[in-house]
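Work Package 3 (structural annotation) set out to generate three-dimensional models for the target panel prioritized at the project kickoff. During this period the team completed the workflow that converts sequence records into discrete structure tokens, so that structures can be stored uniformly alongside our sequence database. As a representative example, we reproduce one entry of 302 residues exactly as it appears in the project archive.
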Amino acid sequence: MNKRKRQIIQAARELFIKQGFGNTSIMDIIEAAKISKGTFYNHFSSKNECLIAILEESRDELTNARRELALNQNPSDINELIDQISLIFHLSRKENFTQMFSTTFDSNDQEIKEVIEKHMIIEVDWLANRFIDIYGEKLRPISFECAIHSFAIMVFSLHLLNIATGSAPPPEKVVKVALNRIDTVIPILLETKDILFHEDIVQSLKSKISTAAVSKESLIEQLQGFVDQLSDKDSDRCIELANFLLVELKKNDEKLYVLESLLTSFNHAFNQTPHEKEAKEIANSLWQYLYSKKEKFNICTY
């Protein structure tokens, strides 16, 4: 993503938070980003596309953070799962999602509805798979059901506790209680098989969230362009990490564990620098690439 497009997304994000999606016009975004009308339409065909870009960026950030958290951890550790789930609520508060989307949920715009639905399904599917990591393959037939019940408990509990107390409760506490509730229900569901989300329904939902694969060639091109723009104004550590990643990625037999270990350091090294956004985009693409490679070789991913 080029610098101008990031500039537009950042301006749109700030306006959506400040005055709501529905109350923000394309001209508001153009003025805030200090660009011409033509420049806006070179990158986006509509305000909806700006919102979609923000959603995708936030989804990538969440996925990236969860994978970093999972490095060298036991996938069956329930405390690890609590921390991973809590990240979405911390990110929501950080990005002010509630305020940003307060005017979109009742929208009749089909495009907006589809994007929100897609991200909802992705989140439920992720948790369903993590439940299988925790409880084993026996849970697969009811994993989607358990994930949906978990999020229902967590979301409503957090919202109503906020209303009652006037302050946002720690997500970790609510997540832990919700998972304890699900743990007591699992034996009953396994025995009775009294569920709403049977395999055909689950597969129908999953068909709506297919994503394009990230190619090694496109990653190398993206990372090479990033390395080429670094200068002596950037720290030696940042330059070294970027070059180490590029060298390893260019190998025919690149080592996934080497890329993983470099990636977390690379992602954080560029924080608070002019390259932060682009570095995160590269890190997100690399995580997606590593995830697909691990799935291919049947290596644990979560």
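Residues 5 and 43 are 6 Å apart (CA to CA).
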